[in-house]
Design goal:
This protein has 59 residues and is of the alpha+beta class. The protein has helices at 2-7, 19-25, 48-58; strands at residues 28-33, 36-42. It contains three helices and two strands; from the N terminus they run H-H-E-E-H.
Length: 59
């Protein structure tokens, strides 16, 4: 259902800790901590390590 909405050109904000889910639908991932942007990761650079690194820096 999310893919159908994306195909229509609508932006979607998905909050998830499930990497597989994120990797299937996201074209960009933003890692936030206390309302501050830690890192924005493009689909091309999206790996579990990239997300883990950004989360670690936020802590």
């Amino acid at each position: 259902k999310i893919r159908a909405v994306l195909r229509e050109g609508t932006s979607v904000v998905l909050i998830s800790s499930d990497f597989e889910e994120i990797a299937q639908v996201a074209d960009r991932v933003a890692v936030l901590h206390r309302g501050r942007l830690i890192e924005s990761i493009s689909r091309r650079d999206l790996t579990e390590d990239a997300i883990s690194s950004a989360v670690y820096r936020a802590a």
